[in-house]
Amino acid sequence: MTEQPLPGDVGTPPEEPDEGEQAEDFEGPRRRARREREQRRAAAARARAIEEARREAKREATASVTASKPAGRGVVRGLKVLIWAVVLAIVSVCMGLVLYFTPLMSMRNLVIEGLEAIPRDEVVAAVAVRPDTPLLQIDTNQVANRIAGISRVASVRVQREYPSSLRVTVEERVPVAVKDMPDGTHLFDRLGVDFATAPPPPGVPYLDVENPGPNDPPTKAALAVLTALRPEVAGQVGRVAAPTVASITLTLADGRVVIWGTTDRTDEKAEKLAALLTRPGHTYDVSSPDLPTVK
Predict the structure, then answer these.
(1) How many CB atoms sit inside 10 A of residue 150's CB?
(2) One digit per residue, pLDDT tens: the chain, 295 residues?
(3) What is the pTM of this model?
(4) How far apart (Å, rounded) are the C-alpha atoms in residues 107 and 127?
(5) Between the CA of residue 133 and those of 102, 107, 282, what are the distances in Å?
(6) Does the first or last residue of the chain, that is N or C, have fewer Cβ atoms within 10 Å of its Cβ?
């Protein structure tokens, strides 16, 4: 039985598609998928970059705000300190003006200490400050200089004591030797200052030098010996003579004589003399303290 071709069948096998067209139809979706993947990766990278940039901008803005806050607080604090300093300065100036020009803190009490031989009235006259004078108007240096002009004053200190006192502390000169002169007996302190003419105090030795004074070498040598003696020995000295700085002699009240010599090794000589005077004799020689002698 012979087969008849179906309608539309031309009697030839159907054409196969071209090999290139098959490749194009087969590779097209893969390429599209690859391109889409690349586009998605690129989009994701751009998104990450944008997010990182946003975070970085946020960090910088936060750091800027954080840094500006302490600076702002520091400026405010500095302004407060400056304002308070100005206020305190103004208050201090006002208080100073009030105290300087008003009797709020004025001198109502004059306290004088250390007087023995100097009359108080003489010191008050040297102070020369009217009562109720504001303490800040009193020049303590000028007051001290006026008091130091009194011959018996060795040193003086003047202090304001608020609210209303002026304190004067005086140290008087102490006579360590006397010398008879045509106008009377002159008193000399340990520095050789002739500070008064008065009757000789008991127990103060006479000074035999040619030109007594604080700048006279024999005077200074004789007084250096007197001030180096032990108290029990110094009380026995009736006269100290110093014709030169190398020939000092002491005459005790009972007539004994001490040959002192120079002022070298004065402390050693004073020690040896204190022991030597316990021995009987008339002349005690300590001019060489290594070989003291008694005659």
Answers:
(1) 18
(2) 444 444 444 444 444 445 444 444 445 777 787 877 888 888 778 878 788 888 887 787 776 655 555 556 667 787 778 888 887 877 777 666 565 666 678 899 999 999 999 999 999 999 999 999 999 899 999 999 999 999 999 999 999 998 899 999 999 999 999 999 999 999 999 999 999 999 999 999 999 999 999 999 999 999 999 999 999 999 999 999 999 999 999 999 999 999 999 999 999 999 999 999 999 999 999 999 999 999 9
(3) 0.65
(4) 12
(5) 9, 5, 64
(6) N
Please give the DSSP secondary-structure letter assigned to residue 210: S
Contacts of 9 (CB under 8 A, 6+ apart): none
Nearest-angstrom CA–CA distance, 158 and 92 = 25
Q: Which residue has the tokens 């108007």?
A: 137
The CA radius of gyration of the chain, in Å to the nearest whole number, is 56
**248 token code pair:** 């000092």
Structure tokens at 50: 């944008």
> What is the Cα–Cα distance from 135 to 108, expressed in whole angstroms?
9
H-helix or E-strand containing 195?
strand 194-197
- DSSP state letter for 15: P
**What is the Cα–Cα distance from 229 to 194, expressed in whole angstroms?**
21
CA dihedral 65, 66, 72, 78 (to 10 degrees): -170
Give me the helix-helix angle, 217-228 and 266-276, nearest 10°.
Answer: 50
DSSP class per residue in 17-44: PPHHHHHHHHHHHHHHHHHHHHHHHHHH
Q: Are 209 and 219 in contact (CB under 8 A)?
A: yes
Q: 211: which residues sit within 8 A by CB, 6+ positions away? A: 219
